[in-house]
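Posting for a labmate who doesn't have an account.
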Amino acid sequence: GRFGLVLGMGGGALPPLVKTAQKAMKVPEGKGEQWMSWIDLKDLARSIRHLLESGAAGTFNLCAPNPVRQREFTAQVERLLGPPARLRPLSPAVRLLFGEMADLVLFSHRASAAKLESTGFKFENEEVDVTLAKILS
């Protein structure tokens, strides 16, 4: 399968983003127009289990059905963290912070979850603002 940006405090891309925002680090800005496909960590685990148990074959996009633009995502993180958060759409300098995960943030990824949903999988977290609020609250 192909994974979207995994959101959870136990791993994935969110902890480094939160750490950056909490330190009020100013990262060089980009336009923020890139699409970000994402998935909540719990939905990722549930979707893998669902696919294994259902015997579904093929390649699936393991991502929530509602991708967002990078600027929308970072605005939500900033709103939830409050001052002194200063997270801005990131530029290629983000590779220093995120290593291999940087491509998920830097390049546009607008994957569809339709094939996964066609197997009967139901997401618990479909909207990035609600998902981030659950994780960061």
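Reply:
Got it, the structure tokens are right above this. The chain has a mean pLDDT of 81.
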